[in-house]
Amino acid sequence: MDPNQMAPNLDSGVKDDEQAALLKSPIKRTVVPFSGYAAGTIVISTQERRLYYVLEDGNSALKYGIGVGKEGFSWKGTQTISRKREWPDWAPPKEMIARRPELPDHMDGGLNNPLGARALYLGDTLYRIHGTNEPNSIGKAVSSGCIRMADPDVMDLYNRVDVGATVVVL
Question: d(Cα 131, Cα 148) in Å, to the nearest integer?
């Protein structure tokens, strides 16, 4: 089976980190020179479609590929990580259901859930940094404002980031 295709018979509630780790990003995670922000800060460049996690030395960052908000849904600003969830449930906001009435009102966390394996919630907004069951969307403007990462990348970031961390969206 192609590792970027989910098995069609999986129940949406199946939570399997090993299988999620197979859904690799088409954009390789790298360490790059990066300065100007405190260690532990997440800096998101929506134009580049990259997320930078500033490392302890304050002079380098882990650079991840991301999917960003499509035209009309992108945003900029500073937030903090208000909570973190493994295998988050998803309840699309009423505005999203109005645009796409075929969506369910609620979906349990799991491999077929669009939020993927992990979610980092941004302040008290509806936005998150989250995984995706569609790794081919990484590097594209496709979301309703959330920041998407391939599951292996969001799992890595989740383990590095604390609640209260600063997120700067440029």
Answer: 6
Total-model pTM: 0.89
| Alpha-helical runs (H) found in 14-163 | 17-20, 94-99, 151-160
State yes or no: is 106 an active-site residue.
Answer: no
**pLDDT tens per residue, range 68-114:** 998 888 889 999 999 999 999 988 878 888 888 888 888 899 998 99
Among the options 130, 139, 150, 154, which is catalytic?
130
Alpha helix stretches (DSSP H) within 43-162? 94-99, 151-160
49 is catalytic: no
Residue 146's nearest CA partner among 76, 97, 54, 74 is: 74
What domains are there in the chain, each with its CATH number? 17-169 (2.40.440.10)
Where does 55-117 show beta strands of DSSP type E?
A: 60-65, 68-69, 77-86
